[in-house]
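User: Run a structure prediction on this.
Assistant: Running it now.
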Amino acid sequence: MHLLNPDTIDFRAYMKDTEGSEKVRPASAYVQELIDNLGRESSEVKTLLPWEKTHALFQFRPGEVTLWAGVNGHGKSLVTGMAAISLCTQGEKVCIASFEMKPRKTLERMARQRSGEAPNGEWMNSPEVVESFRDLYSQFKTWSKDLWLYDQQGTVDSSMLIGVVRYAATELKVTHFFIDSLMKCVQGEDDYNGQKSFVDKLTSLARDLNIHIHLIHHIRKLENEGETPDKTDVKGSGSITDQVDNVLMVWRNKPKEKDIAAGKKTAFDDPDALLICDKQRNGEWEGLIKLWYDKPSQQFVGAAGASALCLYNWPHWRS
């Protein structure tokens, strides 16, 4: 794991747009690329979500932006943490800019998800258990060589963040950049022009750098907790979902949680959460998958009663 610290790295040189003269090229310049690409897409290695049942349905493509949306507290950060771990395991280079959580806390959660165990509680007083987690975290340190964290909390200047993304892609060869969240980059839920401009810059940046940008955002609180959201529930400007390539929504089954708390019986196959794909510009599938929460690992798994996923051994998942 590596830190990108704004106090030690000068990102100003990466904050400027590429000159238009460098982008305007004759159509003939792309013809050979078109010919070379014939039949290649079906044989290309795809970059995928952690759950096997999504592999034929959805993929992350270079040059795209994915919006991860959901009600506050519904598990967006947990799901995107799992996605980031699996991307690293697939050979991708990942940078996470979390403006609501310190790097140590972000890494602590990801280490727990990757190991499938929780390093806390009274049983951690055992020297043997503490030592086992030291070994586990040492392995994680080696594994996370392709993971970077941008060390900045609170609000961030959007132009500075654009520079950070360019720096990460150009100098570090990062292929996936996570931004958590939009509200920390554009001040004011009603600043629709600011939101539109920022997301427009991200989509251009992803295309120009041929990377995938993941943008995390909130949706409005639903009137009925049993209601599943769609992209029209995303807070702010409608241009956010119009401009991005993919919209993935995380929904937590609050009605089930209330029934369990009240001692009511719930159906075995009633999911704890849903991952809803409400837009995939360059793919055919839109729909939802059911997920179940595994508390010790803080993972969402793909089947009721399934063990935590083997996030360190792609693609050999356990569920």
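The CA atoms of residues 36 and 306 lie 43 Å apart.
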